[in-house]
Design brief:
The chain is an alpha+beta fold. Helix content is 27%, strand content 51%.
């Protein structure tokens, strides 16, 4: 792949992540789902919890399982996600990998959650469009204000 094509693909991945943040935070689940591979693998080391005793680790496989779980979970929740400073590697014309710096704020009925860390993604192209195939969120700092 020549450098110009690689840079175009990197920009396409940046737009995908802009949509990921915007469509997730505005709860546009039909659009959000289009960004995910049908067999997505998700691991979140520290997710917002319903109670202080709940396990913060979230493991999910499959786009439909993930999105269908988000719809009821995000009812009454407000969120803002910022992904910055991407380190993107286009491996070949159909695969890429990236690490994004993450800061998010999630307001639920029971907790105000703030997290800082990183999102690690593997991407694949499906019918010419990039999809997130693997997502691993690691938070190095978490602040929870229980209500």
């Amino acid at each position: 792949m020549d450098r110009t094509t690689e840079l175009v693909e990197i920009e396409r991945l940046k737009v995908l992540m802009a949509h990921y943040s915007t469509w997730g935070d505005t709860q546009q689940w039909d659009k959000f789902a289009t960004l995910l591979h049908e067999d997505i693998e998700i691991l979140i080391d520290a997710a917002p919890r319903a109670t202080p005793d709940a396990d913060p680790v979230m493991k999910i496989t499959g786009r439909d399982t993930y999105v269908n779980g988000l719809v009821p979970y995000m009812g009454g929740v407000h969120s803002a996600h910022q992904m910055t400073l991407p380190d993107i590697t286009v491996i070949d014309e159909n695969t890429a990998r990236a690490t994004w710096c993450l800061h998010d704020y999630v307001k639920t009925p029971v907790v105000n959650f703030k997290g800082w860390g990183h999102m690690h993604h593997d991407y694949v192209k499906v019918d010419g469009e990039w999809k997130i195939h693997k997502l691993h969120t690691t938070r190095t700092i978490v602040e929870e204000e229980w209500l």
